[in-house]
Amino acid sequence: MRGMAPRHRTFPWRHTLLVGVLILLGLGFLVAGLLLIDVSITPAPSMSSFAARQVDQSTKIYDRTGQVLLYDYNRDARRDVIPLSAVSPYSIQATIAIEDSSFYEHGGIRLSSILRAAIADVFGGSLAQGGSTITQQVVKNTLLTNEKSITRKVHEWVLAIKLEQEYSKDQILEAYFNNIPYGGTLYGVEAASEAYFGVAAKDLDLAQAAYLAAMIQAPSYYSPYGSHRAELDARKDLVLDRMQTLGFVSAATASAAKAEKVAFSPTGTKTTIIAPHFVFYILDQLKQQYGPQALVSGLTVTTTLDADLETHAESIIKDAAPTLRKNDNASNEAMVAIAPSTGEILAMVGSSDFFSTTTDGQYNAALALRQPGSTMKPFIYSLALEKGYTRDTVVFDTPTQFSTACAPSDITNNTTPCYAPQNYDGAFRGPMTLETALAQSINIPAIKMLYLVGIQNAINLAKSMGLTSLGDANQYGLTVVLGGGEVRLLDLTGAYAAFADSGTKNTPTGILEVDDGQENVLYKYSPDPVQVLPANIANDMNAMLSDNPARVPEYTLDSPLYFPGYDVAVKTGTTDDTRDAWVIGYTPSIAIGTWAGNNDNSPMVKSIAGMILAPSWHDIMAYVLTKYPKEYFGEPDQISSSVPPMLRGDWQVPDKNGTVIPHSLLYWTDRNDPQGPPPSDPSQDPQFSRWEYGVQSWYASHPALFAANPPLMVPLSAPLSTASSSPSATTSPAI
After folding, report:
1. Stretch 408-427: mean pLDDT, rounded?
2. Within 10 A of 657 (CB to CB), how many other CB atoms are there?
3. Is residue 549 reached through a cis peptide bond, with omega within 30 degrees of 0 on the bond before it?
4. How far apart are CA 119 and CA 128, in angstroms?
5. Is the preceding omega at residue 603 within 30 degrees of 0, hence cis?
6. What is the pLDDT of residues 660-715, one digit of tens each?
7. Contact call for residues 455 and 476 (beta carbons, < 8 A)
8. Residues 687, 451 contacting (CB under 8 angstroms)
9. What is the DSSP letter of 297?
10. Which of 547, 546, 570, 577 is nearest to 734 (CA)?
């Protein structure tokens, strides 16, 4: 109302907020006061405490029997105490750059780093620089237990402040370099320098110093002998970038150090570690599950490894290495064995020789991402069977232009956007059953089946069977059936193990039990099987992959892939330019996968996997058959006489016009209901004109085979569809 004084609005929430802020400030001052009191009354730690530090307990890694000791992690801790003057300036600068760039300015703790570490813990992510100062790390590694609690953390801050008050920065830094763990049994920069590079700490060059500094944050994860070498290399470069930013080195010097090829000495000796690639895989698993400090807490770990099989496999692969290098230009071979019924890893050989200093033997190729070649084909054929196609379904291996952006007659153009792939030998075989097409690893039938089942469906199935590293359909297009994408040998072998176990997937595991060393079981493995394929489909695939006569003429009847009297299924694969060769095979008792190639992804000599890998794979499988139970696959489904003729192997039947001339599968079957009635108008399918052109071209080029029904070229002049089914990338033949 006019003339009345305006009423003031009230904001009760402001009052509440102000009270909350004052309370928090009060608590903050109280905590700070208590911290100051604690600092003033806490006695300064003696420097002798650093030298008298107790060595942590060792973690023992056993095979599946619990009797064979594979590795005693931290059993023989190595530490050589040296003065700070005996440490390379590069090592000092690199460590300060990545761990505590304000070491010479702070008083023991950095509030900003504490806050940053807390945020990283809440939201995830990694830190370019550690959350604890070097002084805090000295306290943590020498004076405190591994307990994780707020009280222990506050005690760490108090001792760090007190340490800074009593000792010089160089004294603290010297204690740090003599106590910091660098992985395994290595404590202190001198022991690490000698073990990793064979030089004293004072002689470390810039690149070597950067590597050691990079390892400090997580020595087990960043081990140069484990499966995270690429991550170690990246963090080493990060250390050099930090050094450049802080003015320790010039851009040119940092660049030269990044480019330097640093050789790491072999770890340990051949008598102190069994199955080294597997052991480091297990140590990495333990660190991820329980944290890095658990590795020095006295764990007893019973693994899944069959030490006898591992030893034989390592020997076979090592013996095959010279021949692979000489004949195939392959510097590495890897192998994985898995028990299908449980997913237990029975053997893991990551390289031809772990202790080799000339072939990067510490690189674990069993965990590396590589292109799988035609080992992807069984997943596509499994879907086809599940959808209603049969082992005897006829599909034509003929020149085909799959891209709807190009004319059906353009059957030799494989330049983007066209897609007219070839088979590995440049030949085309005409009508083939799915069983023979898979056994001989022919590309064109596989691509056609991929189109029929759907690219994304195929990827989804492969992922459900364990190939989780694959991307989405738009990344590969139709090339996924020829090995587009990347997988790990461990995962691929595990996926094939699902075929062996009647379509049941058991995620590969390497640990049976973890004991804390005081008879308390922290973990005990319990299988968690998942049915990813119907059992009858898995049985059909087992029959197809173990059909030895169907491999002829690709392989002879007495090839290394065949074991008379045994049910052994197998698939080979060779990728573009022969960069990767695979043989993955299995019995109901065990799945064995092998890979050969070069760690730097350089090509081998042009060949096929059967020539490169089959001999060593055969020798491993032959040994397995002598020690594991002889079992047989389930019987495949009988093919009903009521299914369409093309699905029971009969492609020479009268068509809708009463003429006996060949037609593609799209003429006879509905891709969404292959066992139902044929499509009323097959030309509606965008691939129909392309497949028909290839079939009719093949028909016309083989008149002698059809004397009673001479070739009749069918005009395919329908306008091209604007929709494109061309893949995102082309690929060379793969088998």
Report:
1. 89
2. 7
3. no
4. 13
5. no
6. 888 999 999 999 899 999 999 999 999 999 999 999 988 888 777 665 555 443 33
7. yes
8. yes
9. B
10. 577
- For 536-547, what is each residue's pLDDT tens digit? 999 999 999 999
Domain positions in the chain are 48-57+78-269, 345-398+422-511+524-627
Both tokens assigned to 698: 């093949």
CATH numeric code, 345-398+422-511+524-627: 3.40.710.10
Give the residue carrying structure tokens 């003696």: 46
719-725 contacts: CB < 8 A, separation 24 or more? 720/404, 720/405, 720/406, 720/407, 721/404, 721/686, 722/404, 723/404, 723/686, 724/403, 724/404, 724/405, 724/417, 725/402, 725/403, 725/404, 725/451, 725/478, 725/686, 725/687
Cα radius of gyration (the chain):
32
Q: Which CATH number fits domain 48-57+78-269: 1.10.3810.10, 1.10.1790.10, 1.10.390.10, 3.30.870.10?
A: 1.10.3810.10
CB atoms within 10 A of CB 170: 13
Average pLDDT, the chain: 83
φ, ψ at 285 (rounded to 5°): -65, -45
Backbone angles phi, psi at 514, to 5 degrees: -125, 125
Scan for tokens 């075989």, then name that residue.
429
Q: What is the pLDDT of residues 430-453, one digit of tens each?
A: 999 999 999 999 999 999 999 999
Hey, which residues does 344 pair with through a beta bridge? 509
Least Cα distance to 561 among 608, 494, 527, 528 occurs for 608
Give the pLDDT score at 52: 47
Going by C-alpha positions, the residue among 606, 377, 328, 354 that lies closest to residue 478 is: 377
Dig out the tokens for 308 from the structure: 């006898």
Q: Are the C-beta atoms of residues 377 and 440 closer than 8 Å to each other?
A: no
Indicate the length of the chain as a whole number: 735
Largest CA distance in the chain: 113
Q: Reduce the DSSP state of residue 586 to 3 states and report it.
A: strand
Pairing of strands 78-79, 186-187: parallel
**pLDDT score, position 105:** 86
Whole-number pLDDT of residue 195: 84
Read off the amino acid at residue 455.
Answer: I
CA angle, residues 487, 595, 633, in degrees to nearest 5: 85
3-state helix, strand, coil in the chain (%, to 5): 45, 10, 45
Contacts of 315 (CB under 8 A, 6+ apart): none
